[in-house]
Amino acid sequence: MKNIDKIGFFKENKEAKRRVLRALEETISSVLHQYDDVVSIILFGSLARKEGVWKREEGRLSIISDLDLLVITRKKRKLSKGLRRIVESIKEREGFEIDIRFICRDKLKGLIKDTHTFDEKEGITLWGEDITSEFPKFKEEDINIEDAIFLFFNRVILTLNSFPLSNIKSAHARRWLSHEASKTMFTCADLISIFYGKYFSSILERVKFAETKLKSLNIPDRKAILEDLKIAVNFRFKEVNKVSINNAYDYWARSREHLINIFTVLYTKSSRKGELRINEQELKSQLTSLYERKYNIKLKTTLYQVLKLLRSGNIPKLPGSITHYFVNCRMASLMLYVAVGKEGVRNDHVKKAEEYLSQVCFLPSKDKEDMKEKWKFLRDKLVELYEAYIF
User: Which of 81, 196, 199, 253 sits in a 20 to 30 Å window from 145, CA-based?
Assistant: First the structure.
């Protein structure tokens, strides 16, 4: 394994570094043992930028950052069951996530010019050839609006997937809300950076750029956004002994509102009127226009979506337009996202989410169901569709 001196944490810690290197050595050894055509193994993400994060919780060190590995092979490969079991055992022992993605070398030049490819391109070669020059040649200003839309809805669905709805006042929920709010604030910085064509590989650089731009942007609560960005940076990178933010739910709720404000103002040119009151028709119309114009979704894409719905066990509703599945799934996820309140869920938003999702596939009739249970059912359905690449 090479270039290990480039791996690091924002606040260096010998124990954290040792555990990361141990996990990397075992994972890479297992990959090389199972595949005989590996060309290169690249580490990307926060640890490759020396922005790794760890926390001290009840005397124990927890590594917050994930290990993100890209394995380049000569043939088309995927994660085997054997390697999956090994990785799971390493994750359980070390206490942090490990994500491995395989790609065939001859597919590198055809990668989409998005933030994910940009981060991989900026990664560290840990084993094999340094072939980052074979990635698509593009700069941060080449990342466009499609990826900002993806990042926004990706944050929405990831939040829904793990939201602690059942016990939002527990210590676990406070920790989760604190980390999720920080990630949400960083997504705000991502959206601003992409909008101005300045997506940096470093999250701290993106935050610094967003802070500069926010001073002149006509976005509601600019001062609060700036203050909450500072809270996110301090909690994530500097306050290693602090496991949760004071008033964690309120901070997360503010981060959600900031994210929606920035997205709607910058990317859909819609307007917000009142707390969490979204102009749905205007936003849906703008999203439809964006997808039709920017994604250039064709009929064959829609037919493929129909096939995927059938394979996932869902009976599809026939689309009224080629953007039908994309827009309705995203609007449903947004309704569930804003439905969450401190004391439960907002019934009207849950019902709207059900209406949007019922335009995508047939849903069972459960009129008398508890609203929290309905929220969870719709959330699970959306996550299922998301993981099946329906939207």
Answer: 253
Distance from C-alpha of 354 to C-alpha of 375, rounded to nearest angstrom: 9
Structural domains of the chain, count? 3
CATH code for the domain of 84: 3.30.460.10
CA angle 272, 372, 382 (to 5 degrees): 70
> What phi and psi, each to the nearest 5 degrees, are found at residue 345?
-125, 150
Q: Please say whether the beta carbons of 240 and 258 come within 8 A.
A: no
Tell me the whole-structure pTM to 2 decimals: 0.90
Say yes or no: 348 and 391 in one domain: yes
Please tell me whether residues 255 and 295 are part of one structural domain. Answer: no
Contacts of 118 (CB under 8 A, 6+ apart): 138, 140, 143, 199, 201
225 with 175, same domain? yes
Q: pLDDT (tens digit, 9 = 90+) per residue, 290-342?
A: 766 655 666 666 777 788 788 778 888 877 666 788 889 999 999 999 999 88
Q: What is the domain extent for residue 243?
A: 141-267
Residue 109 belongs to a domain: yes
Q: Are 44 and 118 in contact (CB under 8 A)?
A: no
Question: Is 272 contained in some domain?
Answer: no
Q: Looking at the DSSP assignment, which residues form a beta bridge with residue 127?
A: 41
Amino acid at 352: K
